[in-house]
Amino acid sequence: MSAIPDQPARDKFQLSQLIYDTRYRSLTIQIFAFILLAIALFWLGRNTVINLAALGKDFDFGFLGQRAGYDINQSLIPYSSASSHGRAALVGILNTMLVAALGCTLALVVGTIAGVLRLSNNWLVAKIMTVYVETFRNVPVLLWIIAFFAILNESTPSPRDFGENGDASLLFGSIAITNRGVYIPRPTPLDGASWAVWVLVAIVVVSIAAIIVYRGYARRQQQSTGRILPVFRVSLALFFVPAVIAFFLLGMPLSLDYPELGGFNFQGGIMMRNSLIALWLALSLYTGAFIAEIVRGGILSVSKGQTEAAFALGLRPSRTMNLVILPQALRVIIPPLISQFLNLTKNSSLAIAVGYMDVRSTLGGITINQTGRELEGMLLLGLFYLVLSLIISAGMNFYNSSIKLKER
Amino acid sequence: MSEMNAQTVPYVRESMVPQAEPPVTERGAVKWMRENLFSSWFNAILTIIGLAFVAWVLMHIVPWLWNSIWFAGSLTACREIRDATWGAGAPSACFAVITDRWQQLLLGFYPSELYWRPITALVLFGVAVAPVLFTRVSRQLLWFSAVYPVAMVWLLWGGTIWPYLLVIAGFALGVPAYRIGAKAVSPLLGVVAAIAVPILFWVFVLPPLSGALSSALPIGLEAVPSRAMGGFMLSFIIGVSGIALSLPLGILLALGRQSHLIFIHAVSVAFIELMRGVPLIVWLFTASLLLNYFLPPGTTFDLTLRVVIMVTFFASAYMAEVIRGGLAALPRGQYEAADSLGLDYWKAMRLIILPQALKISIPGIVNTFIGLFKDTTLVVFIGLLDPIGLSNAIRATTDWNGIYWELFIFIGALFFICCFAMSRYSMYLEQKLRTDHR
Question: Is A62 left (phi over 0), alpha (psi -120 to 50) or beta?
Answer without folding.
Answer: alpha
